[in-house]
Amino acid sequence: MLRLGIIGTNWITKQFIDAAQGTGRFELTAVYSRHLDKAQEFATNYDDEVALFDDLTAFLNSSYFDVVYIASPNSLHAAQTLAAVNAGKHVIVEKPMVANVADFAALDAAMAAHPDVFVFEAARHVYEENFHRVRDFIADHQVTGATLVYMKYSSRYDAYLAGREPNVFTTKFAGGAMMDLGVYLVYAAIGWFGVPQHATYQPTMLQSGVDGTGVMHFSYGDFDVNMICGKTTQSYLPSEIYFGKDTLRLDAPESITQMDFTTPDGTQQLAGPQEDNPMAPEAAFFGDTIEGGDHEACARQLQLSRQVHQVITNMRVAAGIKFPGDER
Ligand SMILES: NC(=O)c1ccc[n+]([C@@H]2O[C@H](COP(=O)([O-])OP(=O)(O)OC[C@H]3O[C@@H](n4cnc5c(N)ncnc54)[C@H](OP(=O)(O)O)[C@@H]3O)[C@@H](O)[C@H]2O)c1
């Protein structure tokens, strides 16, 4: 059984713990929060005996857990991952794993010094069966283009409009539409079509310095992929992948439940069933990979993360979106 520690006590951590416990491979044994009473309150949701911490260094260097799930604000991910690897802990870190691809260099050095440690970015959708079905379908068909959309009005945008500073709408915490939701689309595009020859981002900026919405364009030479992400507007558009006169239509690239393949002869439904908890497939992969000692599988996923963040950092910097850590 893998002993799990967590950083970040919002709803997403509960959803991940449910998924992890559901695999039968993880038990919750340690909780870190900046406030001990919050850690205590969080732990009351679970029957397990849980060690509580409000000191991050003491938490990471404790012997109460083997794997840490990190769901803190984006800009903290890379440094917390680095500290955890240096403490010899396996890491499952929420997307986006880094705010700037340059942070991967320090992580690579730490992983080289701790070759037994596993590190994963929790890009949950790439582990889903329907994501793999799309990838396999594309491998057998000639793509002529795609339009991918993930634009969801954020519950925190109202707080932003009211003059407050939710983390996800600040540059301080590496927020904005592309870092929060666009990352799912970039994962889909690179996972399905490969690294683009050229990538651009046209953001609509908020006064706080982050992008509220934006349009990404990836060119692949003989076809293009256009993507829209946003946190200040609600979209109900599906996504589409084109094969000349035939079209594969997805209800949502970050959580596919419908895959309609339409040709001039009619429409076929190609999606398989989806797990109730969208984090279940990734939790199963992480548990199997760590317990099976499969470093190659981990390295393959990390290489995809590296490609995703290289493209995102390039697009972000070219679009003039600056984060405090960029000068490092
Ligand atoms: N995979 C998914 O489906 C999914 C869904 C939602 C979010 N996420 C990812 O999960 C991460 C957390 O998102 P969120 O919306 O929960 O973020 P958040 O509410 O801003 O912060 C998450 C946690 O970090 C701690 N925290 C908050 N502000 C902090 C600060 N100023 N300094 C240090 N720690 C702070 C808090 O825990 P304590 O108060 O206990 O320290 C909080 O519970 C993000 O990276 C996001 O991209 C993923």
TrEMBL record:
SUPFAM superfamilies: Glyceraldehyde-3-phosphate dehydrogenase-like, C-terminal domain, NAD(P)-binding Rossmann-fold domains
Residue ranges of every copy of the Gfo/Idh/MocA-like oxidoreductase N-terminal domain listed in the record: 2-117
InterPro entries: Gfo/Idh/MocA-like_OxRdtase_N, NAD(P)-bd_dom_sf
Molecular-function annotations in GO: nucleotide binding
Gene3D superfamilies from the UniProt entry: Dihydrodipicolinate Reductase, domain 2 (3.30.360.10), NAD(P)-binding Rossmann-like Domain (3.40.50.720)
One Pfam family this sequence matches: GFO_IDH_MocA
Entry protein name: Oxidoreductase
